[in-house]
């Protein structure tokens, strides 16, 4: 696919190409306002622009290509309750040929997937379900991800393994890149959570949108049996690295209902862990409203409801976690 514009139709074609594992070649002369080179370049295979400066800026941030190297034994684990994971074509194209385990845990879950072993498993929560997959893992490395994420670059997994193999980290985290049409609030939060960069650095916790673990570490220190935030719980006392040059495509639309449920569940776990969260009481909730409402109003009623849903979820989650 050749990408020359970033209108809605072009982004739709880009989405289809990335899911299908097709090459994407940029032929644009410039990047429109609101889009960033460090977030577009990881989606590309090559850059074909006459602007040498623009070409150099993009090429410096392309995803890791396939590389020659020793075979590496690695397993990918993906819980999926509704569909074939979006990243399957990318995983099949990786230069180290991982074994892929899809944990099918819903009545509409996948039954058979090309290039993957489908395990029908009950849903036991995020922690216990993922830990149960370890019984089927024989490799020294295991990569946990989610069914709506797409690893970028044929050398994505090898880049993570190299970073973990030659370090004292217990796990390494990939950089999450938002879809080009992601809401600006989502994109900005991902930029703060997993910023661009050129070297591996320490990170506060694992994130199972895209984290590579030493299998022996997960056997010695299992994911806890919790409904959510199993990666945050597991990370306490562990050494986590962040690999910003290993990008994975992942972001969600902002839906008030989904945001409320997630914030409520996450904050319940964070408070139970003893972490400091901003909304612990009704007074905290009221105090936070002006800073949330004013900018949200500019984005329209939908974003206002999303922001209020997040605050309410955080407050109720904190109450549950105490």
What is the total domain count? 3
Mind telling me which CATH architecture of the largest domain this is? Alpha-Beta Complex
Number of strands: 12
- Measured distance between first and last alpha carbons: 52 Å
Profile the largest sheet: 9 strands, mixed
Structural category is: alpha/beta
- What is the tally of helical segments? 12
CATH superfamily of the largest domain: Spore Coat Polysaccharide Biosynthesis Protein SpsA, Chain A
Please tell me about this protein's structure.
This protein has three domains: 2-59, no CATH class; 74-249, Spore Coat Polysaccharide Biosynthesis Protein SpsA, Chain A; 256-321, no CATH class. The protein has twelve helices and twelve strands. It has helices spanning 8-20, 37-40, 52-59, 88-92, 126-132, 156-165, 184-193, 215-220, 230-235, 256-272, 282-299, 301-321; strands at residues 2-3, 25-26, 46-47, 74-80, 99-104, 117-120, 141-145, 150-151, 171-177, 201-202, 210-214, 240-249. The strands form two sheets. Strands 4, 5, 6, 7, 8, 9, 10, 11 and 12 form a nine-stranded mixed β-sheet that branches. The protein has a three-stranded parallel β-sheet with strand order 1-2-3. The radius of gyration is 20 Å and the shape is globular.
């Amino acid at each position: 696919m050749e990408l020359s514009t970033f209108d809605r139709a072009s982004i739709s074609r880009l989405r289809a190409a990335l899911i299908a594992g097709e090459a994407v070649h940029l032929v644009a002369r410039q990047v429109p306002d609101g889009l960033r080179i460090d977030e577009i370049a990881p989606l590309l295979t090559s850059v074909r622009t006459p602007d040498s400066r623009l070409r150099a800026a993009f090429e410096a941030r392309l995803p890791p290509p396939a590389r020659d190297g020793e075979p590496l034994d690695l397993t990918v684990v993906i819980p999926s309750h509704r569909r074939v994971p979006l990243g399957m074509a990318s995983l099949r194209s990786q230069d180290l040929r991982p074994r892929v385990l899809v944990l099918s845990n819903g009545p509409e879950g996948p039954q058979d997937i090309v290039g993957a072993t489908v395990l029908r498993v009950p849903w036991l929560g995020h922690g216990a379900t993922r830990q149960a997959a370890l019984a089927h893992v024989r490799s020294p490395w295991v990569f946990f991800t989610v069914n709506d994420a797409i690893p970028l670059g044929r050398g994505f997994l090898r880049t993570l393994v190299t970073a973990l193999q030659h370090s004292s980290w217990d796990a390494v985290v990939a950089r999450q890149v938002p879809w080009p049409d992601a809401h600006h609030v989502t994109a900005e939060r991902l930029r703060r959570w997993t910023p661009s960069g050129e070297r591996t650095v320490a990170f506060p916790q694992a994130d199972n949108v895209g984290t590579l673990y030493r299998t022996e570490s997960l056997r010695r220190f299992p994911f806890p049996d919790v409904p959510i935030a199993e990666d945050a719980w597991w990370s306490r006392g562990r050494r986590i690295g962040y690999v910003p040059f290993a990008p994975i495509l992942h972001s969600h639309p902002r839906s008030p209902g989904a945001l409320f449920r997630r914030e409520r569940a996450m904050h319940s776990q964070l408070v139970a862990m003893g972490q400091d969260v901003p909304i612990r009481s009704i007074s905290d909730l009221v105090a936070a409203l002006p800073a949330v409402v004013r900018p949200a109003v500019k984005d329209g009623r939908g974003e206002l409801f999303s922001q209020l849903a997040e605050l309410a979820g955080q407050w109720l989650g904190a109450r549950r976690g105490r």
